[in-house]
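Contributing: when you submit paired examples, paste them exactly as shown. First protein:
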Amino acid sequence: MAPTDKNNQNFIVNLFRKSTAIGPVFFFILNISLQKTVLDGLFAVIAVTIVDYIFITLAVLGVGKLLEKPKIKLGLGITSSVVLVLFGIIMILTIKKNNFDNISNAYFESNYISSFISTFLLTISSPLTIIFWTGLFAARAIEKGYKTKQLIFFGIAAGLATFVFLGSSVTLLSTIRASIPIMFLTISNIAVGALLIFYGMIRLFRIVMNTN
């Protein structure tokens, strides 16, 4: 198989993996796009992509093996769970009241830096993701016989897949955004906040159970 064909295959595989791994960060980004602007959502997508590339780089460098140590894994697991819960609580407590019928008539304050930083912090608060990437690269090296150069291309394709999938989702949302009832903003904030809290609590519960 030619290198270009293999790179395209890597991109498609990673794009499919992203589409089937929808989690709290995905809904957090969509919520930013609703509560602020579509451009805010794209800045959030860039933040996630950067974090993914950071994790991928650390995984290639072998940092994932270090994070597999029980004490380090426990500490990072608890920290990331607490961060998720705090993000959820803050989202619910900072809900604003709007007096408009739909989003097209409402005024939204855009804050690209805030959108970028909040998403960056939420995403990077789960460093155990590096272990996932380490396992994925190891599987590619063993099953597919990938060498270092091929793993680098695979990592680049994985990060690009993140940007394409999330960016496409935000863009798609922008096409129907104007027709969304304003009440949906409040519901969306509560739902995403509750999801983050629930996800964080479940993760924390599993950590405690595994420790015992």
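Second protein:
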Amino acid sequence: MALPVVIVILGALFFCPSFLWAKTMYITDRIEINLRSGIGLEYRALTMLKTGDRVDVLEGDKNWSKVKLPDGTTGWINTRFLVDQVKMVPAVDPKIQEELRGVKETSQSLAREKEILIQEKARRLKEIEEAQNQIHSLQQEKNKRISPELTALKTKNEQLDKEVALYKKQIDNFNQKETRQRIEEQIKWFLIGSGVLVAGLLLGWFLSRGRRKPHRYY
């Protein structure tokens, strides 16, 4: 009979609500820790807990524990920050406290500046993306408007090139014809000059024969 009773007792303890076995514990000697909404650093911080704050542990393991604050707030903290008794620590030098406070304020200020820079970077990237999209749209609109004009100009330019080539060919033919005519003209005048010269020579020869004195025979 003893064994079934033990089993029943263990089963009741295992399945009973967590508040029945809640244990009061305290935050260890840390300055501040976050009470988070879930298990993990990625979950939202609900509030800050300081050294010596009392909490009721509802459930947990060696890594994370679910705790309840005196005001009823529940959340999760790292189990290693929980102790059964508050350790008495010597008072911290006010100067060190002031330095720690300054470090904390600086850290918070840097975190805020980082968040502002991240937001500013996101805004700038969005502006750049919008500008690139606008440039792309303008380029497409430009291509739509200019392409037909470029096609027409290209066609007209090709036609003008053909006309220029034709005129050049005509000019070359004209120059060749003119050169040929000039050469023929020069040959003709050369022949005429030569004929006149030969005719003059013959005429002079005939005239010189007619003027010779007759020979006398004695």
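If you have annotations for the second protein, write them as plain sentences, like these:
Residues 12-21 have pLDDT under 50 and may be disordered.
Residues 19-86 form a domain with the SH3 type barrels. fold (CATH 2.30.30.40).
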